[in-house]
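Lab notebook, bench 4. We co-purified these components, and the gel suggests they stay together. Before we commit to crystallization screens, I want a quick structural picture of the whole thing.
Request: model the full complex, all chains together.
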Amino acid sequence: MPEQPNLVCPIPIKDYPKVVLAHGGGGSFTHDLIEKMFLPAFENPTLSRLHDGAVFTTDSGRMAFSTDSHVVSPLFFPGGDIGSLSVYGTVNDLAMCGARPQYLSAGFILEEGLPMETLWKIIQSMSRAAQETGCQIVTGDTKVVDKGKGDGVFINTSGVGIIEHDRNIDPTEVHPGDAVLVSGDIGRHGMAVMAVREGIEFETTLQSDCASLAELVQDLLKANVPVHCLRDLTRGGLATAMVEIAQTSGYSIHLDENWIPLCREVSSACELLGLDPLYVANEGRLAAFVPSAYAERALQVMHASPQGESASIIGRVAKEEAGLVTMTNDLGTSRLITRLSGEQLPRIC
Amino acid sequence: MPEQPNLVCPIPIKDYPKVVLAHGGGGSFTHDLIEKMFLPAFENPTLSRLHDGAVFTTDSGRMAFSTDSHVVSPLFFPGGDIGSLSVYGTVNDLAMCGARPQYLSAGFILEEGLPMETLWKIIQSMSRAAQETGCQIVTGDTKVVDKGKGDGVFINTSGVGIIEHDRNIDPTEVHPGDAVLVSGDIGRHGMAVMAVREGIEFETTLQSDCASLAELVQDLLKANVPVHCLRDLTRGGLATAMVEIAQTSGYSIHLDENWIPLCREVSSACELLGLDPLYVANEGRLAAFVPSAYAERALQVMHASPQGESASIIGRVAKEEAGLVTMTNDLGTSRLITRLSGEQLPRIC
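Here is the predicted assembly.
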C-alpha cells in the first residue's frame, strides 16, 4: 500500500470528470474504476484475484466472503423483486467460489416516504429466498435518507460461505482444453426488467431467471466434476464474463453461437430494443469451465437440476490468441467479443 | 420461520403508512422496525441477540460478522469523511463482539455526476483507515444510480473478525454489580457533523471522534479484564445504548451525570441547538460493562490508550427496577432515561 496518499485521481479528469451511469454497468467503465482506483488503493492479494467473492483461509479451512448492493428499478418485476434478488445475488457470488452459502447480512437504505407495506413485501421475499437457500440473515442495518436522495430502497447483502473441498475454483484455474458450459438460456432477467420499465408487452410474460445457483454448484461438486471456474452472468452478461475470464486466465475462449441457449421472447425483445442478448444481465445463470473429458458429465448434472434444464456446452478454451474471446456463427465466420462498453441497461440489479 | 407469508404489515398502516427519517435514527422508531418487521421475518437465534454484529462458530473457533451502510451528509466533516467512517464503523461493530477485525467488503452506491476526484479522496481515506486497523478490503461492488436518485455516495461495509478468546461479550452477560465505563467524552461526532451542516462556528473547530476502537478492546482483553459487554455509542448516543442493554440484560443501569465526560465545545453546541448530548451520536466511543472489582484496572487500560484518554466510570448495574436506566444529577435527583424518540440528527453516519 502507498505510504503517502496519492492525491492525483488515477482516472484523468479531462476524460471522465464525473461518475456516469456506465461506471455501474459492469462493463469497461466499471473495469476502469476497479483497475485504476479500487485495486491500487485497497491493494491486497485476495482482492487482486477479482473473483465474485474473496476466499480466505482460517484454522479450520477456507471461507468465502462477498458483497453486493442492489439498486434495481423497478423494485418488483416479473419473476422477482429487489428482496429475492439481493439474497440470490450474494448467495450466487459465494457459490461461484465453490462455497456453501451460510450467513448473510442485510443493509437497507430506505428513502423517506417508502410505503411500509412495500418494505414488508420486500422483507418477506428476502425471508423466503434465505429460507430456500438454507442461509440465515444474521446481522443488519437500516438507514433512511431524505425524500429525493434515494429511490425507494437500496439493499446491500454480504455473505459468508464455507468451502468444503480442496479445489480452487477461480479464473486463474482455467486451462486450454477446458469446455465452457452455460447453465441455461440467457438474457431473461435483463429483458424482464426492461420490459416492465419500457412498458413492452409480449405474448407471454417474460420472467426473470432470478434464482439461487448454490444447489447446482453443490450438485456439480458432489458428482466429482473437477470444476476449474464458475462465474454468474450478471451485469455485462455472458460476453463480459467471458472477456474477464479470458483476460485473467491469459487464454482465449472460443464460443459457438449456435449452442448458446436463447428463448424466443428474449430474442424478440432484444431485436425490438436493439440489444445484444450476449450483453444482457442474468441473475440465475452461470458459466462453468471444466476439463473437456468431464463436459458431458457436467452437462448431465446441470440437466438434472431445475436451474440447469436448458444448459449447453457453448465453447472451449485455447492457448492461442491469449486473452481474446471469439464467437463463430451459422455461416462459419468468427467475430471478436469485447467487454460491454458504456451502459446498456442501467440499474438492472 | 413462518410457513405461509404474512401478508399483513406488522407496523399498522394507520400509525405509520410510510417510512420516516426517524426509522433510521437508531431510537424507538428503528427499534420498532427491527422488533416488528426484521426479527419476525428473518428469525434465527444469532439475529435475535441484537448485538452490534453476529457471532458464529466454525470448526476452528468463533467469528464475528457485521454490516453497516453509511449515508452521512456532508461527505466530509471535521475529523473524518464517509470513507474513514465506513471503515471504522464496521471495525468497531466487530470489536464490540470482542473480535479482531480482519476482512472488509466495500459496496458503493454512487450518484451519477459525483466528481471523480471526490470518489478518489474517499477511497484514499478508506485505504488509510483500513491500513491503520490492520484490515484488508477483500471484496467489493459498485452501483451507479441516476442523478437525483442518490446523494453523492453511500458506502456499505461489512466485515469478518476472529474471536481469539473464550469470553462471550454480549448484552446478556451484563450482571448486577457491573461497573459501566465510557471510553471518552461524548457527542463530538454528532455535533461536528451538525456544525458543518448548520454552518455554526465555534472558537475552536469541533472534531469528530471518528476512530477505530479495535486496539482499545484488544488492550482490555490482553489486560485480562473480564469484559461482560461492549457497545459503541453511535446513533441514539449513550442514552439509547444504555436503554438497549438494560432491556436485553433484564437489569437496571444507574448513571451519575457528574462523571459523564463532556467537552466544553459539545456542551455549548448542544445548548445552542437545544440537543441533549446523551442522545448525540459518537463514532469512536464505547461503553464497557465489567465486574466492579475490575473497574479500576479497565479504567487504567483505557487511560493508557489514545482512544481512552478521557475514559470514566459513569455508573453501575443493579437488579432492582429491571430494564430501566436512571441518571442522578448534581442535586441528587434522579431521572429516567428513555430511548431516543423520533429523529434528532438525521444522516449522522
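Chain B has a mean pLDDT of 93. Worth comparing against the SEC data before the next meeting. Chain B is about 30% helix and 25% strand.
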